[in-house]
Amino acid sequence: MSLDTDTATLLADQLDRLFAQKVDAKLLRKVEAGEPAAALEAEVEALGLTLALVPEEAGGAGLAWSEIGGVLESLGRFVAPLALAERMAAGWAMAKAGMEVPEDVPLATWDRLTLSGDKVSGTATIPFGRPGAKVLATAGEGEAAKLVLLEIPEGRALPTIGRDPRLLVEFASAAPLASAPDPMGGEALPAALAVVRAGQIAGAINHALAESIDYGNTRVQFGRPIGKFQAIQHLVAEQAGEAAAAKAAVQLALRGMDEAPSWQAAAVAKIRAGLAVEPVSAVAHAVHGAIGVTEEHMLHHTTRRLWQWRDEAGDENAWSERLGRAAIAGGGGELWKTVVALSGGR
């Protein structure tokens, strides 16, 4: 059973209030320096949102994808230094594959591992990963693909533009703690992670837009707020258009994940959200000027993570190539049907 929209909105509002109190530039600097946001993680864990997309009969909250848009936007708007989005995706994928979902939902990686017999090998990047914790990964291709639960080995910290912790690890003939055939032919976890990343991007973009509007209305130059200058208004209007397009693509994908989960719907969301990152970030910094990159200002924390999230779970180039190849393989007669299906039509 799915929660109603009002309940889902209340959950998002609760996260907004928590993050507004707890997430600031000081906390983010600590996380970027290697200090986990343990207190914040504990408070979010208490809300039970890691199990949000897991059906009630499997011990979860039973939310639909279309009901977690506000949660994803909140995570993006405050650039919360947590692996909540990844763990929500992992819980959903495990439940869909019929795996037992533990209360301590594992982390997740978008990197595809190789499968040889019952052993797993390959390199994986794990957001907020730590040795000894558990991670869910996709191993193998197509009908032979499996979702595998692995213990995270020792790895090395991976420097990123976002500066959020990323652990790079190597699995060498590792024995999974649990596994199950992937119900989407190797696409369940990659699609889920692409959608949650797109949702975070949409939230961060809307925050950058709101900050640009606010700063434009308060920063006075030549005797009036800079937001009154037509050049600034044009830039912010461009931001608004990109923000609206990204959010619409995410909403489309969230509905698609409820109705008929597919990598194509996830691809559309990740592509369009990714395409919005560059123009939105550029305008935000143009409006703010030098203050946007000062250590105590939140803007660069937002835009750096936008650039990071754009590359993770497949960037727009990778997903566009996949969509293009699939369209070509389907033949010209199927192209319009595919476009209509992806737009929510029948």
TrEMBL record:
Tree of life domain: Bacteria
Domain Acyl-CoA dehydrogenase/oxidase N-terminal: start-end pairs: 6-98
Domain Acyl-CoA dehydrogenase/oxidase C-terminal: residue ranges: 197-305
Co-factor(s): FAD
Keyword Flavoprotein assigned: yes
Keyword Oxidoreductase tagged: yes
InterPro entries referenced in this protein's UniProt entry, alphabetically: AcylCo_DH-like_C, AcylCo_DH/oxidase_C, AcylCoA_DH/ox_N, AcylCoA_DH/ox_N_sf, AcylCoA_DH/oxidase_NM_dom_sf
Stored SUPFAM superfamilies: Acyl-CoA dehydrogenase C-terminal domain-like (SSF47203), Acyl-CoA dehydrogenase NM domain-like (SSF56645)
Keywords on record: FAD, Flavoprotein, Oxidoreductase
GO molecular function (one): acyl-CoA dehydrogenase activity
Pfam families from the UniProt entry: Acyl-CoA_dh_1 (PF00441), Acyl-CoA_dh_N (PF02771)
Family (UniProt): Belongs to the acyl-CoA dehydrogenase family.
Protein name in the entry: Acyl-CoA dehydrogenase
The organism's taxonomic lineage, starting at the top: Bacteria, Pseudomonadati, Pseudomonadota, Alphaproteobacteria, Rhodobacterales
